[in-house]
Amino acid sequence: MARIIDITGELYSGMWSYGSPFPSLEIKPLAEVEWVKYDIYAEVFEGLNSQSGTYLETPAHLLGEASYPLIDVPVEKLVDIPCVVLNVGNVRGEPITRQMLENCKNADKIQEGCAILVCAQYGEKWKDGDYLASCPYFTREAMDWLISKKPFLLGSDFPRWDNLEKPQGFWLDFYNADILMLAPVVNIEEVDSALLTVLPIKAAVTSCAPCRAILKV
Asked: What angle do CA 114, 93, 150 make, to 5 degrees?
């Protein structure tokens, strides 16, 4: 029987965000509903945005109307995607290089059209105060190598793929390659290969949306 691993990061009040103009998430009780005679309990998600927590993204994030919204991705393509997890070790605040990716024991298992998840053993920092500040990033050569593998989807367990102080200049090439992005995820440290299912919120007119992602091992 297959084992299911939830790789979705938890949403919670005051969690990390990418900074202004991205709002901070606050989950608050719904006010009393006067037109119902019973006590009811529901929550308001203030500050929820398309890149809250773990999210799935299309190239429209950079290319706009020249690309396609997330809702246009057929849901059947997001279920049981063959997936390879490249574990580069515990990386904090440093670049992930092409050599690190090539040296992963299962790098030769990558097939065109699969999903690739890059693991820097960073999911454990999901609730840490320096979650963004100590994030690793891809070098230009590393991203070029990943793009050359022609995956359907590329993901990671860290939130920022580029370095704001040392931009690597790969974004246009990545989005023009028509690869879906899944980031950031958790709980992938012990996985080599699996089937990936990603189900985003069904929202119109958006390039990306929060999702639930699982691995079937």
From this structure: 15
